[in-house]
Every structure is written in structure tokens, then in C-alpha cells.
Amino acid sequence: MSVPVRLAARIERWPTAGAFVISRGAKTEVDVVVATVAEGEWRGRGEATAIYYHGETAESVRDQILDMTGAIADGVSRTDLLTLMPRGAARNAIDCALWELDAKRCGIPVWRLAQLEEPKPVVTAFTISLGDPDRMEADAKATAGKYSLLKLKLAGEGDVDRVAAVRRGAPEARLVVDANEAWTGRDIVAEAEALMPYGVELIEQPVKAGEDHLLDGLVSPIPLCADESCQDRADLERCIGRYQAVNVKLDKAGGLTEALALCRDARAAGMKQMVGCMLSTSLGVAPAFLAAQGAEWVDLDGPLLLARDRPDGFRYERGRMINAPATLWG
Predict the structure, then answer these.
(1) What pLDDT does 24 receive?
(2) What DSSP element (H or E) covers 204?
(3) Neighbouring C-beta atoms of residue 216, cutoff 10 Å
(4) Which of 192, 241, 250, 255 is at a distance of 20 to 30 A from 263, taking alpha carbons?
(5) Where do the domains of the chain lie, and which CATH numbers do they carry?
(6) How far, rounded to the nearest angstrom, does the alpha carbon of residue 206 sit from its chain's CA centroid?
(7) Is 153 a catalytic residue?
């Protein structure tokens, strides 16, 4: 007689390390939702963070997870979830929990179960929150010797001054910038050209999602990356030709299963990948660590932006993300 699979979900609150500021506002704490699937002695966990610009909340994500209790008990698979649930944080939590549960059943790490190569340390970006140029320069200076890749949050007006200030603070660092949709209505090519002297490698989401047609025919000297404009594979076609890269986040895509497929399809379309995350603990970024193995840019600093992490979390050494020992993910 088979043992039924049980599903549970809880909300956890984690304080940030100071205020995390982007163009849409500041956060001093983050609520994550942890889904647990259990079968006998085995447990699988998945962590998700609500996508606020989709109207998700931690409570709505938890409730959406619990609505799947019956389906999980009936033994639905990760593939089944792609049609039973919409993309988003709730599906991510369940999908990742099922990956971990299946790995425990098989007695192998998740990367082997997913038929991936054994993961290696990756260099992750460290985020410089939005602020005035002096503050961002000081924050960049504080990263000296710690991080070789910085990601700057921008806001539209005054962005060149912000990037110049960060370059003064971190003259050796690689730079990528995230406009967070704030360049809608601006001359995208001119904005990008103005950033060329500072060695910016990538510009994330210059225009509002849904207004991607504004990029038609533009030739930016710096590659453009779709974030809010590309949630999962369903969005990829309209991004091809407008963006040169896509930011893959498991909370957007709805789990590791879809994220791996999105990376594969984006690569086949000639698009580069950044693998990113929401504010989260190491449990949240562990599956993304696998998806990030083939990415050109990695932005998995979620745990670094918290006041504390889980005790079995990742190690970060001079910007290199090193998997915690003896985990199923690496």
C-alpha cells in the first residue's frame, strides 16, 4: 500500500540587511512561503517569494499552495503542475519541493535527477540599491575586494550620474544595471550610449512590460535583458528581436522545471541568460543555482541581502557562490 503524499505551507518573515531599495519602493523585510511535501520519512521543501507586481502576497501564495493538497495526495507530477497551476510563486514552491522529494526517493542529488552536469561555483552579482549618487558610490566602495560583479538599481532621471558614481566607487568591478521599467518614454539608445564609458555589460527591463514594442528597430550598444517582460516560455517569442537576453527567475517561471526549459529555449533562440532571484534565503536560490550553471550572468544574491540566512545556506566567497556541503542541490 502506497504512502500518501502530504502537502503543507507556511509563511516565514526574514529581515533585510538594511533597506533594499528599487524604483518601486523600499523593503526592510521579506515574507517567503515554504511548501513541504512529505511521503513517509522523506521530506521535500520549496521556498517562494510572492511576485508583488502580479498582485501576489505571501498569504495568497500560501493559500494557492494549499489548494493543491488533494492533487498532491493523488500523486501529481512536476510535469502535471505545468498545466494544473498558473506560473508564479506558488507553483515554484511546490515544484521545487517535489524535486527535492524525488531526489530523496532516488537517493541522488537533484542535479543528477535533472540530468544536469554536477554544479560548480558561480560568480554572482551583488545588488547596489537605488539611492543618490553619493550613497551608491559609498555602497560600491564598501564592496571592494568582496564582489567582482555589481548590479545597480536605476530610476530614470539621473541614472548616468548614479552609474558614474558606482564606477568611481568600484573601478575594477563588472557592472550590469536594472532600469526596472523606468526608461519608458526615454531615448533608450541614447541612455545606453551614455553608459558605454562605464563598462556596463547589460541593461535589464528598460521599458514597462507590455510596451516592448517600443524597442522595435532599436540597436542598443549594450544588450537589453527582459525581466518583467519574460515570465516563462509563453513570453519568449515576443521578446526575440527586442531583447538580447532574458532574466530567468523561478518565482516568475513557476519552478525549476519551467526555468530549465526557458533557459534551453532562450539559448536555442540565440538569447543569453541571466538567472536571478527575488529576496529569499538559500532554500529559495538553491534550485536556481542549478539553472545558473550555463548562464552568462548570475544574480543570486538574495541571501546576502538578508540580515541572516538559514544555517545550512550557501557560502559566498569574494562573489563566488559555493553550494553548501551535503545538500541535495549540489
Answers:
(1) 52
(2) strand 200-204
(3) 8
(4) 192
(5) 6-109 (3.30.390.10), 122-322 (3.20.20.120)
(6) 17
(7) yes
23: left (phi over 0), alpha (psi -120 to 50) or beta: alpha
Grid cell digits, residue 163: 552609474
**Catalytic site includes residue 146:** no
The catalytically annotated residue of 27, 104, 208, 249 is 249
pLDDT tens digit sequence for 108-129? 999 999 999 999 999 999 999 9
Would you list which residues are annotated within the binding site for Mg(2+)?
178, 204, 227
Any bridge partners for residue 224, and if so which? Answer: 203
CA gap 221, 99 in Å, rounded: 40
Per annotation, catalytic residue among 104, 146, 153, 252: 153
The answer to whether 127 and 278 are in contact (CB under 8 A) is no
314: cell is 550557501
Kindly report the pTM of this predicted structure: 0.93
Separation CA 293–CA 86 (nearest Å): 26
